[in-house]
Specification:
Elements (H helix, E strand, L loop, with lengths): L5 H14 L31 H25 L9 H4 L2 E13 L12 E9 L8 E7 L12 E5 L12 E5 L2 H19 L1 H26 L4 H21 L3 H27 L7 H10 L5 H34 L5 H30 L1 H9 L4 H5 L2 H34 L16
Antiparallel strand pairs: 1-2, 1-4, 2-3, 4-5
Helix pairs in contact: 2-6, 2-7, 4-5, 5-6, 6-7, 6-9, 7-9, 7-13, 9-10, 9-13, 10-13
Length: about 450
């Protein structure tokens, strides 16, 4: 007779022990939870929306993406704008080795009063006179000069011969080292706090710089419509930076839609009120740019372009925050009705909106602070000050941008609630549990 199978004997023993009085029967563990300690992790990607909802979002956004790509191609200048490089002159680094007071008029007698100027001995670091020390005379009203011995400065031979020492003037201080150090501190802080998300945010920031410097500035200088260039550039930044930073998801697509609505509204309001307020954008900076380019510059277009670009950062912040708030509230209580979800998210949005609007006001006030001080010294009334073109431009920028933010909060919240509740939010796939054998 063949021996009984060992597994059969052990199985029968288990059944007998289970039938004994006082023996506690333990049901088998569900798959993935057997034999060992569980390592549950609450981290991971946000819940994914239903496939039909994601498809609808892409149907809405794909024409916008294609229009942005077409705009980038059509508006990009085929050739670099013609600029009078001789009038600007090369910029050359130098080091101030000595400084001495001197009369501005060399023929002035000893009784002519305070010297009023400063003679700088500057050693040039580059150019045809590299290594040579030249003397540069600068104005020092009241004995105060912007440059002194020991400073690293920037010189230019604007309109003169770079080989002629008398053609050079000191135009600025060198700031590369402190700016690079500050940028390094910024990168370290962002990566230390955000880690991989921080790296993605830095990549989005790099994309923003590339679009502004590589597309917006050349296109405006080439005479393209400044507002259209700004809208196309902002859309490119919006699509690239948001998806690069927050990933390809329905949540990000919802924030993109809310941002797009806000941008369109800001552009339309800007055009309307720039026309009603007769904002021409013609000032000293615009005149200087026109003289350098040798052509007319659309001052009003530059005002509108600056308005749209300046509002984009605040729009991104508000729309991403609102979308994230809806997703987190929905994940915390999947049974929450759509109306209650909208109200809860709007309470968060109102608090964030109050801060964002104040941020815009302070940002534009900081930009116009020197002019505000000048008008204050001139003892001009508040109404008179606010209606001057320079200040009125900042007022229009602030109010139009704030209106765009105000509208984007409920619009984005409603879109997020619709996406989160119409489709089934599926939790992310669970990672396989680690098994520890006892």
């Amino acid at each position: 007779m063949l021996p009984r199978d060992r597994s059969s004997r052990s199985s029968g023993a288990r059944h007998r022990r289970a039938a004994e009085p006082g023996h506690r029967h333990e049901p088998p563990s569900p798959p993935g939870q057997q034999h060992g300690h569980q390592h549950g992790h609450g981290h991971g990607p946000p819940p994914r929306a239903d496939r039909r909802v994601r498809t609808l979002l892409w149907v809405l956004l794909t024409p916008c993406v294609l229009a942005t790509l077409v705009g980038l191609v059509l508006l990009y200048p085929a050739a670099a704008p013609a600029v009078d490089a001789e009038s600007a002159g090369p910029r050359i680094d130098g080091h101030v080795s000595a400084a001495a007071e001197r009369a501005c008029d060399e023929e002035a007698g000893p009784d002519a009063g305070p010297p009023g100027c400063l003679a700088l001995g500057v050693q040039l670091a580059e150019g045809p006179l590299a290594g040579r020390t030249i003397e540069v005379l600068i104005s020092a009203p009241g004995g105060r000069a912007p440059f002194g011995a020991g400073d690293d400065v920037v010189l230019t031979a604007a309109g003169g011969d770079p080989a002629d020492p008398a053609a050079y003037v000191v135009v600025d201080l060198q700031r590369e080292v402190p700016l690079l150090a500050l940028a390094a501190v910024f990168v370290v802080a962002v990566v230390a706090l955000g880690r991989m998300r921080g790296l993605a945010a830095l990549a989005g920031l790099g994309l923003t710089v590339v679009v502004l410097v590589g597309f917006v500035l050349p296109a405006v200088l080439a005479g393209r419509n400044a507002l259209l260039v700004a809208v196309v550039g902002c859309c490119a930044i919006m699509f690239g930076a948001l998806y690069l930073t927050h990933g390809m998801s329905a949540r990000t697509s919802t924030a993109v839609l809310g941002t797009l609505v806000g941008l369109v509204l800001i552009a339309l309001l800007g055009i309307t009120f720039a026309e009603l307020a007769h904002l021409t954008g013609v000032d000293e900076d615009t005149a200087s740019l026109a003289a350098t380019l040798g052509t007319e510059v659309d001052g009003r277009g530059l005002v509108l372009a600056g308005l749209v670009i300046g509002a984009l950062g605040a729009l991104d912040d508000v729309t991403v925050t609102q979308t994230t708030a809806v997703w987190e509230l929905r994940a915390a209580d999947p049974r929450l009705p759509a109306a209650a979800l909208f109200r809860s998210a709007m309470r968060i949005g109102r608090d964030h909106l109050a801060s964002a609007v104040n941020t815009l006001v302070l940002a534009y006030a900081g930009t116009a602070l020197p002019l505000l001080l000048l008008f204050s010294v001139a003892e001009r009334g508040l109404g008179d000050t606010l209606t001057t073109q320079v200040i009125a431009t900042e007022v229009v920028r602030t109010l139009v941008g704030s209106i765009g933010l105000v509208v984007s909060v409920p619009v984005t919240t409603a879109l997020a609630v619709a996406v989160a509740t119409r489709g089934t939010l599926r939790p992310p796939r669970a990672l396989p549990s680690r098994t520890k054998l006892s």
